[in-house]
Amino acid sequence: MARIHESLPGSVTPASxxxxxxxxxxxxDEVSVDGETPRPRKCARPSDVDEESGSExxxxxxxxxNYRRSPRGASTSDGGPRPHQPGSIVRVALTDFVTYTxxxxxxGPNLNMIIGPNGTGKSTLVCAICLGLxxxxxxxxxxxxxxxxxxxxxxxxxxxxxxxxDPARQRKNPVITTRISKESNKAEHLLDGKKxxxxxxxxxxxxxxxxxxxxxxxxxxxxxxxxxxMHEELKELxxxxxxxxRSQETLMADLKNxxxxxxxxxxxxxxxxDRKELTERVAALEKFRPFPxxxxxxxxxxxxxxxxxxxxxxxxxxxxxxxxxxxx
Length: 328
Known about the structure:
By secondary structure, the chain is an alpha+beta fold. Among the domains are: 89-206, Rossmann fold (3-Layer(aba) Sandwich), CATH 3.40.50.300; 223-285; 288-328. Helices cover 38% and strands 17% of the residues. The strands form 3 sheets. Strands 5-4-7-8-9-10 form a 6-stranded antiparallel sheet. Strands 1-6 form a two-stranded parallel sheet. A hairpin with a 2-residue loop joins strand 4 (89-97) and strand 5 (100-106). The termini are far apart.
């Protein structure tokens, strides 16, 4: 397995520089015997002059000779490139993982070093290798939930690790793919495109003697105390943000339940409203009940009065007809 080394801040590449000819020259005052104005005399430094020939020595290289040599074992006896050992990491591809939108790392067969300032994603690559080989987040000392490793604004993250094949067992390099879902907070593992369990991935890695899990990454960056305090404050703010998010999710769930209950009770509410409206209408009509009764009674009185007048008129007519008979 390829080893990843993080550079320490403050490391300096050894280098040497020459001073210019003007800086190398020293002026000495030469006093003339006859009292004339002294003339400057140039004296070269011993390091810039060859003792035998008296000429200036050639410029020294920026790096010592041992810095420019190829590492031991970098090539084979015939001069060709050294192949990867079985089980060593050949390639790592990340998609929407933490800070990486898309990144490909092609690792060599020897010692691989990832060098960069703090916060550029060196430890993120180590976390990707650890998670990609099937191990839990507790070995990393970072986020507890694996969904936290999905880049902000994305729904999924992908880790693809290509290992050097063992010629005795594989024809081509095996590829382990890990897909992390932010919504389900779970990881799905594929071995050469076939779905596999986490245990199968771990057992497969052990066949190459890959040393996983890695040690917990708890090294503090070389930064002032102010940066450490700001980091702790950021962690507290993140914790508070998570608590508020959980509270918001609970409130949203309660609101959704209340809305569902409101929709279910909408029919009963409408029926009650209709009944109330009908009750008010009946009460209003009850107040107008005497008016039609009065009209009916008035019409009956008018009709009776008319009949009375007709009866009186007929009575008078009969009296006139019967008057001669009554007088006789």
